[in-house]
Fold these 4 entries.
Entry 1:
Amino acid sequence: MVQMTDNPLTAPDQPEEITIEFEKGIPISLKTANSTVTGSVHLFDTLNKIGKKHGIGRQDLVENRYIGEHRI
């Protein structure tokens, strides 16, 4: 199974600073320590990679319940 985010326990201990520039409410550039990204697809892809590395959006859920007569 492919994980969408890395485990927060193995994420970097230091934050990663980013700057998002907007024009009329639309993000037009993303600046990191190493690069500047423009274009909506590149912004989206880069933010997903940064979020994955830092464990953003991860939720681990374990359920144990009965539905009808079948245990799930």
Entry 2:
Amino acid sequence: MLELERDGEPGGSQEDLGALPQQDQRRMAQVGVVVDKSEPRAGTFVQMDNEVKHYSARDDGLEVTGIRGALRKYDRLKEYFWKAVPADKDEFTSHVAGQPANGYFVRALPGAKVSYPVQACLYLASRGLTQSVHNIVIAEEGSDLHLITGCTTSTARNSGVHLGVTEVYVKPGARVTSTMIHNWGPEVDVRPRTAIQIERGGVFVSNYVLLDLVRSVQMDPVAICAGEDTTVYFNSVVLAPPGAHLDLGGRVYLKARGARAEIISRAASTGGTIIARGYIEGEVPDVRGHLECRGLLLAEGGSIHAIPELKGDVPGLELSHEAAVGKIADEEVEYLMARGISRDEAVSMIVRGFLRVDIEGLPPSLAAELRGAIQMADKHAL
């Protein structure tokens, strides 16, 4: 069991993020959060440890603030607080519920098409700290929002625990694209708890990327398709070096006609352990769901356990799954070598292709960072 430290009241805010040390700015940039205005952003939120450092919104159709201030400002926000994720779900949600409210509140106003991504950084600056976060995202009817959440530490050798509760509400006809990039460290344990409620015609797209060493991650986000013609996509690309234990998944409940879900994961182990879960349940006719998990073992000592689950409660639905775990095929390497490519480069090309990240709406600098991270994975495969 993890040891969780209790934390006091957060401090004040820092308006000028450009005043942050260069090392902090570089670490944030690696997970898609830029403070130097080199990439356009519709809004920004930064929390370091349990202190909100900055929040701002540059789009008229957008609100970005700390969750504590939002709870004071909007009495109705209590209707969303701890509704999608129960406070007593497990020991980690109970710990967050017992702390002063920290985290971000992001709201796209009705009909707003937020022009650029909103960026949020959850930054572990102090060694041995438990970071407690509670986020709420609301996309009002007909709105469109892209949120990039970058989670990282001040140094690659930092230690601590990150507890993140996120509740997302997608109103009728709204669309939310959530891209989460983790870059932690070998002594960090991560426990996100996320739930998404989607109303009629809403779309939720989740992209999760983890390509650097972390001690452990355990997450199983839940999406509820409560309205007709709703759509959910969970996409994940993860790499587990030696010493990492990743227990990752996604659960979708199709509760209304015309609902659609797809859970796609790419998992590669260079010595770490990966448990890749997926669950889709169809509760009414005329719903569709598909699970796909592909695992690649690149080194001795690694382990990948794929657990796809489907449940159909009525006739007239369509659910399917594919799962495969294996090594790099010799014939693929030989095919490339026959065309004059060295064995090492052939293996690298196959790994890069397997882990290729194609995420809609990423700024060029972040897309380049992800390509670089995938190339760095080559060294573990050789």
Entry 3:
Amino acid sequence: MRTRLAVAVLVVFAGNVARAQTQDLGHKTLGTVGLDAGTLQETGLYAVYALGAYRSDRIFDRTGARIPLDIDASAFVSLFGISGSYELPRLHTWVSATFTAPVARVSLSTDDPRASLDRFGFGDIYAEPLQLGWRPPRSNVIVAYGFYAPTGRLEPGGRGGVGEGQWTHQLSAGGTVWFDKGRRWKLSALFSYSHNERKLNLDLQRGDSVQIEGGAGVKLARVVDLGVAGYALWQVTDDRGSALPPILAGARDVDYGLGPELDVTVRSLRSKISVRYTHDVVAHSRPFGSLVLVAIGVSVWGAQ
């Protein structure tokens, strides 16, 4: 039974951490969106560079009980992304697009070497070819379509890439509300539905999921945003395929987490620096861990 649990850890970790901790600007990654989850960008072209570190030493089963297996799991990611936004004045509509590509290292050590892995390489790219947005009074509203393409190499276990070897389609809708005329206090949220296609070289298809990312914060001295970021995920369909270990049949991911966020705007450099720490508070069928993310966004053209 212990060996079967170890193999299950490998599948769950590779499916939820190697995947989830290697994207940003795409909200498949829990904990990487935060206070600006449902906020529109001003017209312009932006470049983003981010560094993230994830760590977990526990994994939980489908009931939320800890699996009695010693693990040391970590993921480090470096990524670059670009995004652009343009206002269609007569329609009072903003059209945006985003592209991002990560490089990551993911490692997992357990007391059973058959369930250990060490991966390094390019992850799956994220592209959001279309986002539409509107600005009612004291609020933003957005809808979007994005996808993750299997550009990262996938190898079961051992050393290899950190890609998932599958296409994932994502539909999103959300917004931001400001509670005062000065737009100091805000609440932002983004709801997403992710559909995973069958893996390219493996008879395995991950179940679909629904998630919420967002946060509540306050602007201080016009250049500092301070608040709490949070997330929730529910897997809504089962994993399936002949490659799915029987012990994982019917198991569905559930995850809730939150943590502090600090954003600082540096107007002289046309940039914004974000620091976020999030930690799981509930986890089912997945690792239980924390994520630290530091990102800098630069306005290359347009808004300052």
Entry 4:
Amino acid sequence: MHYANGREAKNGDKVVLISPFGGIVSGILYDATAGNDYCNGRIAITHPSDPCPNLKEVFHANDIKNLVESVPAYSEPCKCTLPGGIQPE
């Protein structure tokens, strides 16, 4: 899979799309798959105001997914008492 100028395309690359319909989009390439040269990738649009985190505060999405899936699902309502003696509905 290659860009218009022949350079090899890789997920995570910073890219610029100059659309034949008049728009220009820049962002990060993701979900690109080899073997198809048409609509075979997506662009995550970036903005100057995007978060700029310390990576030690960030989790990989798959790790969060696995954590959520490991928590057993309960169908019984909560039988706890909130501060002030309030019972949750």
